[in-house]
Design a protein that fits this description.
alpha/beta; 7 helices; about 220 residues; seven-stranded mixed β-sheet
Length: about 220
């Protein structure tokens, strides 16, 4: 019997990259693969609706930093990160994919996923975490990368930008790149046009990188 590969996807927004993963699961692009949970840190994220409308529906969860801190006096950002990690770990995933997740994880999340700190299972192996970032390695780390690249092109500082999927480490957008694609910026094109072309490439490489990582990791 073929093992089903389990993925947890973390989102913050509309979920177009999540949709690419939903469409690819159990096809030749991502064979024997199931998204077992979609978790958002924004209650209104349309990606949650995408998950609920999938066939079959994908379970969802919501946990935001500020409401968590307000409801838990004395708790810290690291405690929030650890709480997200515990939700993820309950799914026993083979892989965690950050697909438009707009929150920088610290030790509380990464130490639990990578096994630096253990929860209840000291024998559990590290669970890989990958992130999609709309820029080339070492360029435009952090937020608003698309707009910053477009602005740099207008100033003549760059001729193209790109997208990548990388392993997640504590330094923002500095993990080992898995797949990198250049995306040209055409002279005179509006930001919206460049953004649309870049997103199409994102939808391709997030699926490719997910398959690459699942092929590299033995089933749990």
């Amino acid at each position: 019997m073929t093992n089903i590969r389990r993925i947890v996807v973390l989102i913050s927004g509309s979920g177009t990259n999540l949709q690419a993963l939903i469409d690819a699961q159990n096809t030749p692009l991502l064979p024997n693969t199931q998204i077992t949970l979609v978790l958002s840190n924004r209650k209104a994220a349309y990606g949650l609706t995408r998950a609920q409308h999938a066939i079959p529906p994908i379970p969802t969860a919501y946990l935001a930093l500020q409401p968590y801190l307000k409801a838990s006096p004395g708790k810290t950002r690291d405690d929030y990160d650890a709480e997200v990690a515990k939700i993820v770990l309950k799914e026993s995933p083979d892989l965690v994919v950050l697909a438009g997740w707009m929150h920088v994880f610290g030790d509380g999340f990464l130490d639990l996923l990578y096994g630096v700190k253990t929860d209840t299972d000291s024998s559990r192996r590290p669970i890989p975490v990958i992130n999609l970032h709309p820029a080339l390695p070492g360029a435009f780390d952090g937020t608003n990368a698309i707009e910053r690249a477009y602005e740099a092109f207008q100033k003549g500082e760059i001729k193209h930008s790109g997208v990548m999927v990388h392993k997640v480490v504590k330094a923002v957008d500095r993990g080992e790149p898995l797949i990198v694609r250049e995306v040209l910026i055409e002279a005179g094109e509006p930001l919206e046009s460049f953004e649309e072309r870049l997103h199409k490439v994102e939808h391709e490489i997030i699926v490719e990188a997910t398959k690459y990582m699942l092929d590299a990791v033995k089933p749990i």
